[in-house]
Amino acid sequence: MIRYALEDDAQELVKLRLAEQKELHPDADATTDKVKAIEKWIRQSIGNVNTLILVSETDGKIGATCTFVVEHNIPGLVDNGNYAYMCNVYTVPEQRKQGIMADMISQGEVELKARNVCAVYFDSVSASMISLSQKLGYVHRTSFYSKDLVD
């Protein structure tokens, strides 16, 4: 069952976020401060009108999550300025390759369209996420630059 995250899900979502981050950054430490920051963000984001956190639940246990953060930017001549950043996309290993994430992303897109969002974007180094996104119609664009502001 795919549903919106509830306040009671916060601890499970923290665990999933840490698992996702450990897969992406195996040498990174999960310090107490980092874990607290993740938990604070999740708790503040559940129920926030500009954040859509979806979870997949089976037998009372969350096995996947996908978050969309809605950004309201200045409108342009070709769009309305409403975008969503897709992040925290994670499925526990034993539930992968079952179509759960594809269903979650598709359900999220329906909700985002209802919220007048004109586009979804994400960044990832995960080959499986890149492959899935391409199957769902996402295209790679290289029209932006970034600069890290943290040492």
List the helices and strands and how they pair.
Layout lengths: L1 E3 L5 H15 L7 H14 L5 E8 L2 E12 L9 E10 L8 H15 L4 E3 L5 H9 L16
Helix pairs in contact: 1-2
Please give a handful of descriptors for the protein shown.
single chain, about 150 residues, alpha+beta, Aminopeptidase, 5-stranded mixed sheet, 4 helices
If you had to describe this structure to a student in words, what would you say it looks like?
It is a single chain. The chain is an alpha+beta fold and 151 residues long. The chain has a single domain (2-135), classed as Gcn5-related N-acetyltransferase (GNAT) (Aminopeptidase). Helix content is 35%, strand content 24%. The chain has four helices and five strands; from the N terminus they run βααβββαβα. A five-stranded mixed beta sheet has the order 1-2-3-4-5. Helix 1 (10-24) packs across helix 2. 19% of the residues are buried.
**Which second-level CATH architecture applies?**
3-Layer(aba) Sandwich
CATH level-4 homologous superfamily: Gcn5-related N-acetyltransferase (GNAT)
Rounded to an integer, what's the Rg over CA atoms? 16 Å
Q: Note the gap between the termini.
A: 41 Å
Proportion of beta-strand residues: 15-25%
The CATH class, by name, is Alpha Beta
